[in-house]
Amino acid sequence: MADFGNDPGLWAAKGIGSAAGAAVSLVYMLPKGRHEAVSRFFTGMICGLIFGGPAGLWIVAKLGIAGSLSGTEVMLTGSAAASLLAWWMLGAAVRVAERFGRGSKL
Question: What's the pTM value of the predicted model, to 2 decimals?
Answer without folding.
Answer: 0.78
